[in-house]
Specification:
The protein is 33% helix and 22% strand. The protein is α/β, with parallel strands linked by helices and 450 residues long. It has three domains: 77 residues, Udp-n-acetylmuramoylalanyl-d-glutamate--2,6- Diaminopimelate Ligase, Chain: A, domain 1 (3-Layer(aba) Sandwich); 209 residues, Mur-like, catalytic domain (UDP-N-acetylmuramoyl-L-alanine:D-glutamate ligase); 133 residues, Protein-Tyrosine Phosphatase, Chain A (Alpha-Beta Complex), CATH 3.90.190. The strands form four sheets. The chain has a six-stranded parallel sheet with strand order 7-8-6-9-10-11, sandwiched between helices. The chain has a six-stranded mixed sheet with strand order 15-16-20-17-18-19, sandwiched between helices. Strand 9, helix 7 and strand 10 form a beta-alpha-beta unit. Helix 4 crosses helix 9, helix 11 runs parallel beside helix 12 and helix 12 runs parallel beside helix 13. The longest helix has 16 residues. It is globular, with a radius of gyration of 23 Å.
Amino acid sequence: MSALWSLSEASAQVGGEILGDGSVVPGTLCIDTRALQPGACFVALRAERDGHVFCAQAAEKGAAALLVDDPQDVDLPQLVVPDTLAALQRWGQARLAAVRPKAVFGVTGSVGKTSTKELLAAATGGWKTPGNRNNTLGLPEALAALPEGLSAAVLEMGMSTPGEIRRLTEIAPLDFGVVTVIGTAHLENFPSGQQGIAEAKGELVAGLRRNGAWAFHAADPWCRWVAEQPWARHAEPLPVGEGETFGWEDAESLGAAGERFRLRTPRGTVPVHLKLRGQHQVRNAALAGAIAVRAGYRPEAVALGLGSVEPEAGRGRLHALAGGGWLLDETYNASPDSILACAEALLELQGGEAVAVLGSMRELGPEAARIHEETGRALRARGLARLWVFGDFARDYAAGFGPGAEAFPDFETLRDGGNGLSAIPAGARILVKGSRYWRAERAVDCLLAR
């Protein structure tokens, strides 16, 4: 990995005054002392809590330097700036501009962003934003440590309100993009409904460099809508799906072994064996593969990369259970689209009853009760036999599902009740999923311990 910037070199980009040794080279930037690694520069943001309060703690944990807006009584080199948020964003923006890879990809969508980011990074051999650093804090924090000499960088871009992705594309201008799907996540923040979400996701397309290209599911009507907007005409839309130049065919579930399909491109078709599970992952892989080939990567190398991606905890990791059952851990987050896609992936596995343990969803606005009820009804229609649900909309989930659903106000009641987790039959195929707020991974821990 090539040299990162010293505090003095960063100061030349973001402004501010150096206190102490400006030759110190931080290994990373970090905005949260709980995640701070020795050698990092701690960025003290003024948010709900003032990050300056934690500067001494950052020093104790091994920080190499501080980025602050007020000199601190801490024995560390400090870069003092008028606004630490503006400096953080400028640092990431300037670093990307200085060491820009040959191709910069952005990935957004209501579901599947992180999986598609992982697939695209593997398909291109590119650097990727770590974890879920996909917002106006996490993205520049990650970009500040971007290595030199990369062939590609794959950046996940999330949003919960209008304008966020526009700001991300200002920090990181894109050559290529992917919009996985435009659904209903964060609906409560958009008075104009799904069109508002489409406009906000479309900010990624608007932020593409001229003559860039972006891939999307050909069957997604809101992605088609984005492609028709005047502000999207500077970039090439790349529909992926049936009847299109790019697409997938001969898809086949291999159960616990993943999925198999053929990626169709203008340069021929190539076989892909995914370790990820579910038809939704085939679609994500086809999107990643299509934009990689469009960017000039060889289809055969792309296929090998797609097949190398392993499921992560909370994002499709599969656990074999005693008695022949399976636990599909999809606990990172939840939306109606992702829940149904994961339920279909569960049903591809061999085993006993197909059941789900679900935390409630969040940020669905005034229609939340109806959406939970419809999702419960759709899970029943897909073929799930039983449903255990908890959280503020558990009763709505259960009402939609009907007989076989058990509703609990919180996780503790689900865990401890006689009709709760202990009532899930041995040998069952179990999907566990929920909003981050409800920390459904606790159910995974309980079930695996059992």
